[in-house]
Structure formats: C-alpha cells, structure tokens
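Journal club prep, shared notes

We agreed each person brings one worked example of a sequence with its structure written out as tokens. Mine is Probable transcriptional regulatory protein DY048_06440. I'm keeping it raw so we can talk through how to read the token line rather than staring at a rendered picture. Sequence first:
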Amino acid sequence: MSGHSKWHNIQGRKGAQDKKRGKIFQKISRDLYQAAKAGGAEIDGNPQLRLVIDKAHAANMPKDNIQRALDKATGVGGANYEEITYEGYGPAGTAVMVSCLTDNKNRTAAAIRSAFTHHGGSLGSNGSVSYMFDRKGYIVILRDDLNVDEDDMLMDALDAGADDMKASDEKFEIFVNPSDLNAVRDELQKKYTLDTAEVTMFPQTVTEVPSDKASQYTGLIDELDENDDVQDVYEAAKLPEDAE
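Then the structure, token by token:
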C-alpha cells in the first residue's frame, strides 16, 4: 500500500503542477491575443507583444500554443473570436467577473451560467457587478537581482507617468491610468525588465466568504479557470484563512 500511496502522491503533485502550468499558459495566451489584436502580430513593431512572447518563452510555453494565440488575433483559419465579459454572484453574494474569448457565444454563455449555478451562485446582467471594480493599468517589476530601493523606483515610476506604486519583498506593483499604460511601459522598459504590463480589474472592496461557503466558492473559481474560453476571472472576495 505504501508504494501505491507514494505513486498516488506523485501523481497528485504532477496533476497540481500541470494545472498550475495550464493556468499560466492560459493567461499568457490571453496576453498574446490582446497584444497582437491591439498592435499587430509583428514583434518588431509591437513592444507589448515582444514582452509577452519573452514571458511565454521563460515559462517554456510550446511554440504551437504561442502561434495559436496569434492566429486567433489575426483571424488565421477563418475563426472569428469575440471578447465577452460575464458578471455574476458567487456563494454569499461575492462579485465575480469572467472575461472570455470565444468563437461560439452560445457555448460559452451556457458553460459560464452552468458553473455559477452548480456552485451556489447566479449569473447577473451587464453592469450588475462591474461597478464594484476599477479598471487600471498594472505593471509588475520583480525585485530578483534588482539593485534599486523603493524610493528610487517610486520616482522612476512617477516620472514615467504612473499614478501609484506598491512595494513588497518580491516585486514592485505600479498602477497606471489605462490610457497611459503603453507610454509608461515603454519608458520603464528603457531601464527595467517588466514582468507584467496589462490593463486589469481591481475590486474596490472585498467580501469575506463564510467558512461553510468556501468549498462552493473555490469550486466555482476552479471550474471557471478550467474553461478554455475563460481568459481571466476577477474576484471581489476573500477566503477565510483556514481555506486558503
């Protein structure tokens, strides 16, 4: 039995690693699509796309995955992909926004609605929860091997046109007006290597999920994350510490 248990544990760890890698690839695919859609699929004329492709290579993302995301953006193969955002409520009324990229709206809508229903939530109408989030430009610079202190980074960020910055032991998080993201990104790239540069959603406040609803909530988020059409899930919720 011990041999079986060891094999089971190894398989469990591998499954968790594969799931984590899949989520990373999914996010990078989203970023590739958005960068190519906004600025074209030629790296030389699209610094944002170059940044994302560098991240894809660093994550050992297969070339086929990279090309597939670029093909979606440029319409290769005749498929017409559309970006759609769904809004809903998870268990205990937690606000959730789901950003999707799909070539079949009916399929995607049915799957998203089903996920909410299966896990004690409900899909809402447009605008039902989006007012609880702020849309911001977001830049991350990792502190690994970076010889710069917080004050200097703050000055560089503000000089580049950023609005605010938050520092931790691992990274600098820089917040930007969405319309200024490209300009701030280009300026900071002259001096630093950026880990992330994107427009994303931040909750204004968060709702704590009760302990008895935590498994329902994580089930909802996991099912959404595992859907191939889902590009991002934005949450205005906090799990209890014993569930994190």
